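Sample 3 of the quickstart, ligand zinc ion:
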Amino acid sequence: MSHTKPYAIAYKGLKEGDYDFEFEIGDALFESYGRVEILSGECRARVHMHRAEAVLEMHTSIDGSVLCECDRCLEECRIPVAFEGDLIVKFSDEIDDYDGEQMWISPGDDEVDLTQYLYESIVLSLPYRRVHAEGECNADMLARFGVMSAEEFDSRAEEAEQPESHGIGDEAMARLAELKGRMLSDDVSEGKA
Ligand SMILES: [Zn+2]
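Result:
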């Protein structure tokens, strides 16, 4: 329901060259995605953009923190965010979907909207396991579940832990696809009254 696009870059008037942009990311963004993965948060994104004749090359770094539901005790826990990534924006009238590393926009568009890119980059930067630091889980909640001790949980979770990966791995792609599917089915993106 955004009236303006707070995470858009109006590239049209810019000559070829290098530019820097900074975006503050707050609760409004996470709310617009229904607080599914992230309850709230505060991050800052810095985008370095090289505008070439036919493409926009962007290097984005995001840091800050978000609140997620702890996988172990279900209380809110704060997870630091540190993301670095490259994005190539190409112009085409045949708009392809974007895959996390390339985005296509229509040559007629005056601006490139990074809202979805920034949101998904934050989600993908989060650890597979989102839990409080050791000893900081809500003890009452853990006792109520009564199933696993913290040690048991950790050893099981480690077995399921993804192998180390850089950039967009299979795991991340699968999560991205799942996320997109959910967003489509929930229709949480833009409610038009
Ligand atoms: Zn916890």
